[in-house]
Amino acid sequence: MGKLKEWVNQDWVRIGTDGSIKGKCGTSENKKNPDRCLPRAKAQSLSKSERAKTARKKKAAGARGKTVVANTKKAKVSFKNGGEVRKIARGCGKVMNNRRKKTKYS
User: Fold this and answer.
1) What are phi and psi of 36, to 5 degrees?
2) What ranges do the domains of the chain cover?
3) CA 36 remoteness from chain centre
4) Has residue 104 got a pLDDT over 60?
5) CA angle 19, 53, 24 (to 5 degrees)
6) 3-state secondary structure of 78
């Protein structure tokens, strides 16, 4: 299984602004400004105040209309052997040369 698939298939949990683990990711009642989600292992490795800090950051930015909010430095999710998810998924959206739109001049 690829690293990106492993990352997606982890047990993700929802973090409340008080720093507690609230349950499965995606079960937030507020769909317009959802709670922060982290893999369970990462969430448990953080202190309650560190979890609260990253959750409050997401809620505050969400209230201003942002949909994608980066984690705090300590809550950043990365692989044990190095590398962030963004580095692994880098080529996903690349345009393939053979599928590029060709302009014809007459």
Assistant:
1) -70, 140
2) 3-79
3) 8
4) yes
5) 45
6) strand
